[in-house]
Design brief:
41% helix, Thrombin, subunit H, 2 domains, single chain, alpha+beta, 6-stranded antiparallel beta barrel
């Protein structure tokens, strides 16, 4: 009876359990949230917003990729341009070297033309048959004396012919031919130790013999000058060939007086002479012989060009 009464009491109280109430509330709010999400998802603005967000993200990624590719491309192009610039710079340096070489060649040709013109003008004033020649070397057995020229017997050169040159606006004696080949000849210059030239002082007319001392840097010696001529000889006086002996024509300049030595117990003076020719710069010479008629200009020019 008591158990039955107790059961009746619980049923008849009318109260809803708490767990049931909580469950109902949870379901209610869940349904509201789902409904709201469904409404948002079905909304046009939301769709556009999502699209815009996706587009922004995609655009950012695409822009980053483009910037990266552009940077890489620019870097590669810069490296390539730098390589091309280096190549162009090297080519320009080579061209500059060629231009400088051409400039030097033109300057040398210009100076050569001036020298040849001087030689040509000098050739027109000579009263002798003249053969223009160029210094081509030195005698291997006598490097400090004998001179080799590029004309020989084929051009009409023979032994004992006089050799002169035009230098610094002055005609002067170089020496004489001592050996002749077909196309080359050997010249003994006035400074050779075996050279003897009959000469005289241009102003005072005292005569003597010029002797070489074996070196172009050492003065020549004019010997056998009468002692009485001491007061008439001055530094700078010109010495010329006298024509005595028949080898050297008269009147060719040899050098200038640089000193006078009075020798004790001698009846003659010894005169030091500086050659007018600077043998260290000698390039062109003329071989001359007996006086003859004037040679036409075209023959002179042709010989010089040879």
């Amino acid at each position: 009876m008591q158990r039955g009464f107790g059961m009746l009491s619980r049923r008849g109280s009318g109260k809803v359990p708490g767990a049931q109430v909580n469950s109902t509330i949870f379901v209610f709010f869940t349904l509201i949230i789902i409904s709201t999400l469904l409404l948002l998802l079905s909304s046009r603005d939301f769709i556009f917003g999502v699209k815009n967000a996706g587009l922004s993200i995609f655009s950012g990624v695409r822009g980053g990729i483009y910037e990266l590719s552009s940077f890489t491309s620019r870097t590669i192009m810069s490296i390539k341009e730098l390589s091309n610039l280096r190549k162009d710079y090297a080519d320009l340096l080579k061209q500059l070297d060629r231009f400088e070489e051409l400039e030097r060649s033109n300057a040398e040709i210009y100076q050569e033309n001036i020298r040849l013109k001087e030689q040509l003008d000098f050739a027109r004033t000579l009263r002798y048959r003249r053969i223009p020649a160029q210094i081509s070397g030195r005698d291997p057995s006598n490097l400090f004396s004998a001179i080799v020229i590029n004309k020989g017997s084929v051009a009409g050169v023979s032994n004992n012919m006089t050799v002169v040159a035009w230098q610094n606006g002055t005609q002067a004696l170089v020496g004489k031919v001592i050996q002749t080949g077909a196309y080359e000849s050997l010249v003994m210059p006035v400074f050779d130790i075996n050279s003897l030239v009959a000469c005289r002082l241009s102003a005072s007319r005292f005569e003597g013999i010029i002797e070489g001392q074996g070196n172009s840097e050492t003065p020549l010696l004019m010997r056998f000058v009468p002692r009485r001529g001491r007061d008439e000889i001055n530094i700078g006086d010109i010495i010329i060939t006298s024509g005595m002996g028949g080898i050297f024509p008269p009147g060719i300049n040899i050098g200038r007086v640089s000193g006078v030595n009075v020798l004790e117990y001698e009846t003659t003076l010894e005169v030091e002479v500086i050659p007018m020719i600077d043998f260290s710069r000698l390039e062109y010479v003329f071989i001359i012989e007996a006086e003859t008629a004037e040679i036409p200009e075209y023959q002179i020019e042709g010989q010089i060009n040879d």
